[in-house]
Amino acid sequence: MYNTTVYSALPTATREGKGIEAVLLEYDISGNAPKPLWVFLVNPSSLRFSKSAKYTDIYPLAAKQSEVQYQASEGQTLSISNLKMTTWYYGKSLRPLLEGLQKLIEADIKNKKYAPPILKFQMGSREFAPCVLSKIEWEETAWLGGEPATITLGIELKEVAKTITRGQIEKAKEKKGEEKKSDRERAEKPRVKLTQRQRAAASELAKKYLESNVAIWDSSVQAAVKSKKYKLSTSEDTGEVTATGVNGAKLGVVAKSTGTEFLAGDKNTTIATLKGKKAPVVKEKVR
Question: 18, 170, 212, 248 — which has fewest CB within 10 A?
């Protein structure tokens, strides 16, 4: 009897087999549609997989029994045997299929390909990749004028290490960088609280930013800036430089300082602008 707990946890699979073709594809890591390199004339009747680990025997002095030491695990091997193909009744030669398969086990020096291609075996949702074709064997039992017309074919595919793309490397670097960030940085705050000197420098740069771009601000902000009736304060915790007008009315956030950089525009500035205007983006190093 089946173990019902294990059985219920298994994924559902369709019995639909029509239109499913076995094929050896070029293993592609660029995200483009993989190129078919060899299409099976008939689908395999069985797929045999194997995987092994290497151990070395160690014989300690005066020990009654040897010990084993793990070395490495090998990749999987996929063996497809007893693949019967016949075209004798149709008057066709199987030579092109045999020659096409042999190309996948050889280097193409003429085209500067110094090793056989990396492959992907696919049959419906079943995939085996990346792999290389490591063995081909066939037996010919019928011919048409010397051309093979009935053969029994066997191939062996060996799993190889996955290739890492530049995009994957960059993504790993970004993830590592994100993990290194402190809780304050994740909250988009300076790594450490700003010093009095850093706050003063941020306020001075914010004043320059406000006044040099006065023409784009909302009329109420323009009036406050032109009449010098506004104040700037920089938060030591968040690094935000906030502008307030008459009677302490908040005009908005002018910019943000990380302690080493002054950032304005986009999400760093909330000061109201005239219709159709945007606060210019500024990213400036702070000494």
Answer: 18
How would you classify the pairing of strands 282-285 and 250-257? Answer: unpaired
Sign of CA dihedral 100, 102, 103, 109: negative
Q: What span, in angstroms and rounded, lies between the C-alpha atoms of 150 and 143?
A: 7
CA dihedral 9, 11, 15, 16 (to 10 degrees): 170
- Give the whole-angstrom CA distance, residue 200 versus residue 121: 65
pLDDT tops 90 at residue 152: yes
74: helix, coil or strand? coil
**pLDDT value at 177 more than 70:** no
Residue with tokens 């002018």: 254
Specify burial of residue 79 (Cβ count, 10 A radius: 0-12, 13-18, 19+).
Answer: middle
Q: Which residue has the tokens 């689908």?
A: 43
Predicted structure pTM score: 0.57
Asked whether the bond before 130 is cis by omega within 30 degrees of 0, the reply is: yes
Query: Average pLDDT for residues 62-73, to the nearest whole number?
Result: 85
What domains are there in the chain, each with its CATH number?
17-163 (2.40.30.200), 189-285 (no CATH)
pLDDT, tens digit (0-9, with 9 covering 90-100), for 16-31: 666 789 999 999 877 7
Strand 261-264 and strand 22-26: the pairing is: unpaired
**Contacts from 40-44 at CB under 8 Å and sequence distance 24+?**
40/83, 41/85, 41/87, 41/94, 41/97, 42/83, 42/84, 42/85, 43/123, 44/80, 44/83, 44/123
Distance, in Å, from the CA atom of 206 to the CA atom of 213, rounded to the nearest integer, reads 11
pLDDT tens digits along 275-284: 889 999 999 8
Pairing between strand 36-39 and 67-73?
A: unpaired
Report how far apart the first and last C-alpha atoms of the chain are (Å, whole number).
Answer: 75
